Amino acid sequence: MIMTRRLFIGTATAGLAGLSGLLPKPAIAAGKDLFAAAWIQNGGAGFSILDGDGNELTSVSLPDRGHDVATDRAGRWAVAFARRPGTFAVAVDRQNGSEPIPFSTPEDRHFFGHGVFSPDGRVLYATENDYDNAAGMIGIYDVTAGFNRIGEFPSYGIDPHELILMPGGKTLCIANGGIETHPDFGRAKLNLASMEPSVVFVDIESGELLEKHTPPADLFRLSTRHMDIDAAGNVWVGCQYEGPETDEPPLLLRVTMGEGYKPIMLPDQARHGLANYVGSVAANRSENRLVITSPHGNCALVLDTRSGNLVERIAEKNVCGAVAQGSGFLLSSAEGDFGEAKLGRSWDNHIARLFQER
Amino acid sequence: MKRPSPVLAALLFAASLVPALSTLPAQAAKRSTNAVVSEIMTRAIEDFIQPGYQRFHVASEKLETDIETLCDSPSDETLAAARDAFTQAAVSWSYVEIIRFGPVAGENRYERVLYYPDRRGVGLKQIQSLIGGFEPYPQALGQLQGKSVALQGLPALEYALFGTGAEALASGKDDGRCDYAGLVAANIDAIARELDGAWADPEGISRLWMNPGSDNPVIRDNREALVELLGVVVHGIEMVRDIRLRAFLGETEGTDRPNAAIYRRAGNTFASIAANLQGIQAVFENSGMTLVLSEQDREIGYRISDELSGAIALTRRLQGTAAELLASPESRARLEELRDRLGRIKTLANEDYGNAVGLTAGFSFADGD
């Protein structure tokens, strides 16, 4: 069992047949909760579109390990991104059922594994690394032209990881992890003595910086990486700490536009259990709940977004993927768990919902 | 091939009860595993970490002393002695630098000892600016410790002792360069003393690592303890391959970068890499990580040991500088062989060993992202 039963009142996941295949299915099953997630299995990699019971509708091979999947509001597109320092992305068109569309970064960039669509679904924004200049960039891709890259703007920091669209659709929130990497050195972290994490708000049209929030100086090794938004429009940021294990930094921050950071203080035992590593953050806005997961600590914590109080702790080996489902959350793990289903795949860190607005 | 030491043989029976950490249903088997993992952690600390930092501390003290002698009595002989002491300190650091947890992760200690790779040459420019007289030298240890980490550790000291113009140190006409080298050596020694002391403290970090438990804020259970040690091996091999070897060995001859080799000025590139690998070997073998493997999986441990021994032997046969080795197709092929061997060790440790101890997707799957 890998679902928060106590919060789980009821979902619309029942009834989908176990369809699976190599090509996308053209029909969009309106009203169903559908999800997408990347995986590895027996040395191969791919991503799948599946329902909350783990029934696969689509499975697409990837050339290497993927990370997150971006989806548009209409439920037409699912785009899987390479894990850093990979340069590929693969888009699946669920409306037309055409062959998956591969695209990639320019030669001097790589993806960081996350992206987000514009509200109208015509543009895709992806976090990227201008590695020769140690600068974070947001690549802009034209969905209507085969995901042709049409521009970029800075992320106003190093190591942009997850980015999300703020309510209203005019502002991007970007978590700059602050860690310099370069593909010449694999996944090595090159600047731990001078990390510069930040959370920034950027105008989606102009690419102009609206706000930049940096942790206090004594928390410069607190890498800000994953985010979601609560019902009140606050951004909850999960962090990974690069300092000594004996330090006890706040691993969850709440960032509010116009106000800045508020560290969320978790009970000692719950914080210790995260092993200074949060791998995924997901909000259930209708229930005012937030889940943060730690595959290093083998646990997930559920919080009340109104009070910031811990509601539930779930022990689960290698748990990381998380998304709102019904009145609860759907979680996945590297052990093959996908909600209640046990599949023979190691799920990567994230689960995306295909229908973001229902 | 190195087999488990006789001292550990008594634990093999207990270990044979334990096919994998993740599949331990019985309370009796759990107790046995607790004993084995606790023994592994204790040995990793007592047989590798503590003596490793102690050796680095001793070498750093001698380095500080020999540079002081050089500054007081400059000559070819005292310069040679200081350079030799640098080599000893750099190699003793290389042995333990694969440890990235504990006190070395605090107060930028790791980076203050070793700022490398310097991909954009930032550190080199800062050192050249100091030695070239464009910036004033720090006059006290506190001043040095307030400057860039690139000016505080072994690469900066290497440049001071071996870089352009270093021969002036033998004449005493060095315009403050020797005193700067002395400050850097004092800084390295201070950090070495902190690391040695912290791990030697029986009530300190060692106690946490030797005693996993639910109330332990760092290591909560045996699985975490073993994963952390496996991380030293996997990340250590990745570091040697990706940051040491690939720093100068390109995918093709045209992309080689001999000037990026670590300690190239001191001629210590391969002595350092060999020490890195010896440290990884010590973690794996001295701790007895093979002990938690079931009878049928124990061959994985022996294969890792064999490959590590082969990699160390291969590195020791690499005579010359990175530039010299890259210039010859024959020796360049040996560097590629080393790179490929390190790749095999990583796969064995990450996937085969990781799977055998219950990490379904391999160790690296949970690496930060």
From TrEMBL, chain B:
<dbReference type="Pfam" id="PF09375">
    <property type="entry name" value="Peptidase_M75"/>
</dbReference>
<protein>
    <recommendedName>
        <fullName>Imelysin-like domain-containing protein</fullName>
    </recommendedName>
</protein>
<feature type="signal peptide">
    <location>
        <begin position="1"/>
        <end position="28"/>
    </location>
</feature>
<dbReference type="InterPro" id="IPR038352">
    <property type="entry name" value="Imelysin_sf"/>
</dbReference>
<dbReference type="GO" id="GO:0030313">
    <property type="term" value="C:cell envelope"/>
</dbReference>
<keyword id="KW-0732">Signal</keyword>
<dbReference type="InterPro" id="IPR018976">
    <property type="entry name" value="Imelysin-like"/>
</dbReference>
<dbReference type="InterPro" id="IPR034984">
    <property type="entry name" value="Imelysin-like_IPPA"/>
</dbReference>
<feature type="domain" description="Imelysin-like">
    <location>
        <begin position="49"/>
        <end position="344"/>
    </location>
</feature>
